[in-house]
Amino acid sequence: MKSLYILLLLSTSPLLAQTYSIIDFGVKTDTAFLNTTAIQQAIDACYGKGGGEVMVPAGTFITGTVFLKSNVYLHLMPGGVLQGSYNPADYPEHDMLWAEKFGTITHNGLYVENMKALVIADRANHTGIVILGVDGGLVENINISDIVMTDVLSPLFIRVGQRFINPDLRPKAIAGILSVPANGSTPALQQFLQQQQARYRRASFSSQTTISIPQLRPVAATKAYLINKLPAGMVAMPVPADSVKMDFTFRQRECGFYPLDGFVDYSYSQNRNEITVGRTTVKLTPFAMDETPVTNAQFAQFLTAMNCKPVHPENFLKHWTNNAPPKGQENHPVVHVTLTDARAYAAWAGKRLPTEAEWQWVAQNGERATAWPWGNDYDSTVCNSGLTNDSTPVKQYEKGPPNGGFTT
């Protein structure tokens, strides 16, 4: 049977000549024995000699927090297991503030002053955990390729059952390493590698960053209606004659910043994932809005009438069956459509999409500026809180804004 391995690497180092086994430092497979000190001594000894590998042989070794150091790799051999201790005291808090500027965050997107973990590599370079395949890591007649650059990688050196490689990691890049038997290549794989090579040629690996400046398009005018003669299903939204001040709040993410001068610091020294609050002044004109989101049934009518094709068909209406809404979900909000699809529907209906200011004005109850359409206190009984694991009919929750409408 042909084997295919895909490994994701952060970095590798040629400094793997020194090898230390944790067995030589007094570890035991006894489940009542804590091996933290012995494992750390092996890591420290390896580090003191310029780096290399700390081998974890077959067996289960109970441990608390261990700290990897530069040029030291923790190598789990087949059957080797580092099992975390069940005693919380075996995991001391570690100060991670230094890592904050590099974007290190916890699972919930927040920074913490201290963290606990089984293995920590803080302020360390060329380090990691190496896991050898359970089949012994056969390397004879194996081709190893970087699927980002599509170059065939030559091993730095070969040891029994192992190859050590050093992929070229460009700025803003990751390495995807593909290991496949020499006779295991297929036409589909070759086509994929050619596509990857073309993408690599087009890619920019410059470390320079440019902040995009958005260009807002004027809102296209729609037909004007008298308030008492609005299209069915629409609700008039009164606005003040003067400009209004609207507050906005968002959580900053590493994937990008909002170009709002005075609100966001673009420097990398800033704490990302923090909450940013700003205020903007906008002038609203009277408008009307649909009291519910567009339903599956309404969107189906649009598709039938226009006989149009989506620009991006990959996930277009992927929740539908045989080009029709799921049975019983005709009055659920339509999803899996792009902004282009939404604009096309709005134009067909003789309407347009709301601006961000209009949308917020309605959601915050106008000048009342509440946190939720129904008030300042969250109420899971008047909206789809996610507990249903699916969408719900657009008119299931009627406790919407005072001017009318429904929450979803």
Question: Describe it for me?
Answer:
- The protein is of the alpha/beta class and 408 residues long.
- The chain contains five helices and 20 strands.
- It has a four-stranded antiparallel sheet, with no helix packed on it.
- The longest helix has 16 residues, at 187-202.
- The radius of gyration is 29 Å and the shape is elongated.
- Mean pLDDT is 76; it is low at 1-16, 97-112, 133-140 and 262-270.
Radius of gyration using CA atoms only: 29 Å
Number of helices: 5
Strand content: 15-25%
Task: Name the quaternary structure.
Answer: single chain
Please state the average pLDDT score.
Answer: 76
Order of helices and strands: EEHEEEEEEEEEEEEEEHEEEEHHH
| Spatial sequence of strands, sheet with the most strands | 1-16-12-13
Beta strands, count: 20
- How does the major sheet shape up? 4 strands, antiparallel
**Separation, N- and C-terminal Cα atoms:** 51 Å
Low-confidence stretches: 1-16, 97-112, 133-140, 262-270
Find the structural class using helix and strand composition. alpha/beta
Percent of residues in helices: 10-25%
Global shape: elongated
